[in-house]
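Cross-posted from the bioinformatics board.
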Amino acid sequence: MKQVIVARADIGMGEGKLAAQVAHASLQAYEEAAPPDQREWKGGGQKKVVLQANSESDLFELADTARVEGVPNAIIRDAGHTQLEPGTVTALAVGPAPEDAVDTVTGDLQLY
Amino acid sequence: MKQVIVARADIGMGEGKLAAQVAHASLQAYEEAAPPDQREWKGGGQKKVVLQANSESDLFELADTARVEGVPNAIIRDAGHTQLEPGTVTALAVGPAPEDAVDTVTGDLQLY
Protein backbone atom coordinates (compact mmCIF):
# COMPACT_ATOMS: atom_id res chain seq x y z
CA MET A 1 0.00 0.00 0.00
CA LYS A 2 1.17 3.51 -0.67
CA GLN A 3 0.08 7.04 -1.27
CA VAL A 4 1.64 9.29 -3.89
CA ILE A 5 1.27 13.04 -3.68
CA VAL A 6 1.93 14.92 -6.93
CA ALA A 7 2.76 18.57 -6.42
CA ARG A 8 3.28 21.31 -8.98
CA ALA A 9 6.88 22.32 -9.47
CA ASP A 10 5.96 25.19 -11.85
CA ILE A 11 4.45 27.69 -9.43
CA GLY A 12 7.39 28.54 -7.21
CA MET A 13 6.06 27.30 -3.89
CA GLY A 14 8.45 27.70 -0.98
CA GLU A 15 9.39 24.58 0.99
CA GLY A 16 6.98 25.15 3.85
CA LYS A 17 4.15 26.02 1.49
CA LEU A 18 4.79 22.89 -0.55
CA ALA A 19 4.81 20.76 2.59
CA ALA A 20 1.49 22.19 3.79
CA GLN A 21 -0.17 21.59 0.41
CA VAL A 22 1.13 18.03 0.29
CA ALA A 23 -0.23 17.43 3.78
CA HIS A 24 -3.65 18.81 2.80
CA ALA A 25 -3.79 16.50 -0.19
CA SER A 26 -2.61 13.52 1.80
CA LEU A 27 -5.26 13.85 4.48
CA GLN A 28 -8.03 14.54 1.99
CA ALA A 29 -7.32 11.45 -0.12
CA TYR A 30 -6.81 9.36 3.01
CA GLU A 31 -10.36 10.21 4.03
CA GLU A 32 -11.63 9.05 0.62
CA ALA A 33 -10.12 5.60 1.14
CA ALA A 34 -12.07 2.65 2.53
CA PRO A 35 -11.42 2.00 6.25
CA PRO A 36 -9.72 -1.38 5.66
CA ASP A 37 -7.32 0.30 3.20
CA GLN A 38 -6.71 3.12 5.67
CA ARG A 39 -5.83 0.62 8.37
CA GLU A 40 -3.61 -1.50 6.16
CA TRP A 41 -1.68 1.54 4.94
CA LYS A 42 -1.17 2.94 8.42
CA GLY A 43 -0.19 -0.44 9.80
CA GLY A 44 2.49 -0.70 7.13
CA GLY A 45 4.01 2.68 8.03
CA GLN A 46 1.87 4.93 5.82
CA LYS A 47 4.31 5.00 2.90
CA LYS A 48 4.18 8.34 1.11
CA VAL A 49 6.07 9.47 -1.98
CA VAL A 50 6.09 13.03 -3.32
CA LEU A 51 6.37 13.40 -7.09
CA GLN A 52 6.28 16.43 -9.35
CA ALA A 53 4.17 17.72 -12.22
CA ASN A 54 4.44 20.93 -14.18
CA SER A 55 0.92 22.13 -14.85
CA GLU A 56 -2.59 22.25 -13.52
CA SER A 57 -3.81 20.20 -16.46
CA ASP A 58 -1.34 17.43 -15.63
CA LEU A 59 -2.90 17.13 -12.17
CA PHE A 60 -6.43 17.02 -13.59
CA GLU A 61 -5.47 14.31 -16.07
CA LEU A 62 -3.92 12.24 -13.31
CA ALA A 63 -7.02 12.70 -11.15
CA ASP A 64 -9.20 11.52 -14.04
CA THR A 65 -7.07 8.41 -14.40
CA ALA A 66 -7.34 7.76 -10.67
CA ARG A 67 -11.12 8.03 -10.86
CA VAL A 68 -11.29 5.63 -13.79
CA GLU A 69 -9.09 3.18 -11.88
CA GLY A 70 -11.16 3.57 -8.71
CA VAL A 71 -8.25 4.88 -6.67
CA PRO A 72 -9.02 7.44 -3.93
CA ASN A 73 -7.71 10.87 -4.83
CA ALA A 74 -7.97 14.53 -3.90
CA ILE A 75 -7.02 17.74 -5.70
CA ILE A 76 -6.07 20.72 -3.56
CA ARG A 77 -6.64 24.37 -4.39
CA ASP A 78 -4.84 26.95 -2.32
CA ALA A 79 -6.94 29.51 -0.46
CA GLY A 80 -4.37 32.07 -1.63
CA HIS A 81 -3.79 33.93 1.62
CA THR A 82 -0.07 33.99 1.01
CA GLN A 83 2.23 33.12 -1.91
CA LEU A 84 -0.35 32.06 -4.53
CA GLU A 85 -3.42 33.40 -6.33
CA PRO A 86 -6.65 32.18 -4.68
CA GLY A 87 -7.83 28.92 -6.22
CA THR A 88 -4.45 27.86 -7.57
CA VAL A 89 -4.33 24.08 -7.95
CA THR A 90 -1.26 22.91 -6.04
CA ALA A 91 -1.31 19.17 -5.41
CA LEU A 92 -3.05 15.85 -6.00
CA ALA A 93 -2.90 12.85 -3.68
CA VAL A 94 -3.49 9.33 -5.03
CA GLY A 95 -4.14 6.53 -2.57
CA PRO A 96 -3.67 4.95 -0.09
CA ALA A 97 -4.14 1.98 -2.41
CA PRO A 98 -2.16 -1.06 -3.54
CA GLU A 99 1.18 -0.01 -5.02
CA ASP A 100 0.43 -1.24 -8.53
CA ALA A 101 -2.88 0.65 -8.64
CA VAL A 102 -1.14 3.87 -7.62
CA ASP A 103 1.66 3.27 -10.12
CA THR A 104 -0.91 2.90 -12.90
CA VAL A 105 -1.86 6.51 -12.21
CA THR A 106 1.46 8.15 -11.36
CA GLY A 107 4.11 5.79 -12.72
CA ASP A 108 5.95 8.17 -15.07
CA LEU A 109 6.57 11.10 -12.78
CA GLN A 110 9.82 12.23 -11.19
CA LEU A 111 10.55 12.54 -7.49
CA TYR A 112 10.03 16.04 -6.15
CA MET B 1 -8.55 25.97 14.82
CA LYS B 2 -5.21 25.20 13.31
CA GLN B 3 -2.46 22.67 13.10
CA VAL B 4 1.22 23.58 13.21
CA ILE B 5 3.85 21.20 11.92
CA VAL B 6 7.37 21.86 13.15
CA ALA B 7 10.06 20.31 10.97
CA ARG B 8 13.80 20.17 11.47
CA ALA B 9 15.79 22.53 9.29
CA ASP B 10 19.14 21.14 10.48
CA ILE B 11 19.20 17.75 8.77
CA GLY B 12 19.25 18.70 5.10
CA MET B 13 15.96 17.15 4.01
CA GLY B 14 15.12 17.69 0.34
CA GLU B 15 11.82 19.38 -0.49
CA GLY B 16 9.92 16.19 -1.27
CA LYS B 17 11.28 14.44 1.81
CA LEU B 18 10.30 17.38 4.00
CA ALA B 19 6.81 17.39 2.53
CA ALA B 20 6.33 13.67 3.15
CA GLN B 21 7.49 13.97 6.78
CA VAL B 22 5.19 16.94 7.37
CA ALA B 23 2.29 14.95 5.92
CA HIS B 24 3.06 11.97 8.18
CA ALA B 25 3.08 14.21 11.23
CA SER B 26 -0.08 16.00 10.18
CA LEU B 27 -2.11 12.84 9.75
CA GLN B 28 -0.79 11.28 12.94
CA ALA B 29 -1.68 14.26 15.14
CA TYR B 30 -5.02 14.62 13.36
CA GLU B 31 -5.88 11.12 14.48
CA GLU B 32 -5.04 12.03 18.08
CA ALA B 33 -7.59 14.87 18.06
CA ALA B 34 -11.15 14.47 19.32
CA PRO B 35 -13.70 13.96 16.51
CA PRO B 36 -15.48 17.31 17.13
CA ASP B 37 -12.13 19.12 16.83
CA GLN B 38 -11.32 17.13 13.69
CA ARG B 39 -14.61 18.19 12.14
CA GLU B 40 -14.33 21.82 13.13
CA TRP B 41 -10.81 22.08 11.75
CA LYS B 42 -11.72 20.43 8.46
CA GLY B 43 -14.86 22.52 8.12
CA GLY B 44 -12.74 25.64 8.50
CA GLY B 45 -10.37 24.64 5.70
CA GLN B 46 -7.86 22.59 7.76
CA LYS B 47 -5.43 25.46 8.34
CA LYS B 48 -1.85 24.19 8.47
CA VAL B 49 1.32 26.15 9.12
CA VAL B 50 4.83 24.72 8.76
CA LEU B 51 7.46 26.11 11.13
CA GLN B 52 11.09 25.21 11.70
CA ALA B 53 13.25 23.98 14.54
CA ASN B 54 16.94 23.16 14.61
CA SER B 55 17.36 20.08 16.76
CA GLU B 56 15.76 16.87 17.88
CA SER B 57 15.67 18.14 21.47
CA ASP B 58 13.68 21.20 20.38
CA LEU B 59 10.99 18.91 18.98
CA PHE B 60 10.86 16.81 22.15
CA GLU B 61 10.56 19.92 24.33
CA LEU B 62 7.70 21.21 22.18
CA ALA B 63 5.99 17.82 22.34
CA ASP B 64 6.27 17.87 26.14
CA THR B 65 4.67 21.31 26.25
CA ALA B 66 1.87 20.09 23.99
CA ARG B 67 1.23 17.14 26.31
CA VAL B 68 1.13 19.39 29.36
CA GLU B 69 -1.32 21.69 27.56
CA GLY B 70 -3.46 18.76 26.42
CA VAL B 71 -2.95 19.50 22.73
CA PRO B 72 -2.86 16.53 20.33
CA ASN B 73 0.61 15.99 18.93
CA ALA B 74 2.76 13.47 17.10
CA ILE B 75 6.51 13.10 16.64
CA ILE B 76 7.72 11.42 13.46
CA ARG B 77 10.84 9.31 13.06
CA ASP B 78 12.00 8.54 9.57
CA ALA B 79 12.29 4.89 8.57
CA GLY B 80 15.58 5.87 6.94
CA HIS B 81 15.20 4.12 3.60
CA THR B 82 16.57 7.14 1.79
CA GLN B 83 18.25 10.41 2.80
CA LEU B 84 18.35 9.98 6.60
CA GLU B 85 19.66 7.59 9.24
CA PRO B 86 16.93 5.19 10.45
CA GLY B 87 15.10 6.63 13.44
CA THR B 88 15.96 10.27 12.75
CA VAL B 89 13.35 12.52 14.31
CA THR B 90 12.11 14.79 11.53
CA ALA B 91 8.87 16.55 12.47
CA LEU B 92 6.28 17.24 15.14
CA ALA B 93 2.65 18.14 14.48
CA VAL B 94 0.64 20.09 17.08
CA GLY B 95 -3.13 20.23 16.74
CA PRO B 96 -5.68 20.54 15.28
CA ALA B 97 -6.67 22.63 18.28
CA PRO B 98 -7.78 26.19 19.00
CA GLU B 99 -5.26 28.69 17.66
CA ASP B 100 -4.26 30.07 21.05
CA ALA B 101 -3.61 26.58 22.44
CA VAL B 102 -1.34 25.78 19.50
CA ASP B 103 0.42 29.14 19.81
CA THR B 104 1.17 28.41 23.47
CA VAL B 105 3.24 25.47 22.23
CA THR B 106 4.81 26.79 19.02
CA GLY B 107 4.51 30.56 19.26
CA ASP B 108 8.18 31.52 18.96
CA LEU B 109 9.17 29.58 15.92
CA GLN B 110 9.89 30.85 12.41
CA LEU B 111 8.09 29.86 9.22
CA TYR B 112 9.82 27.11 7.30
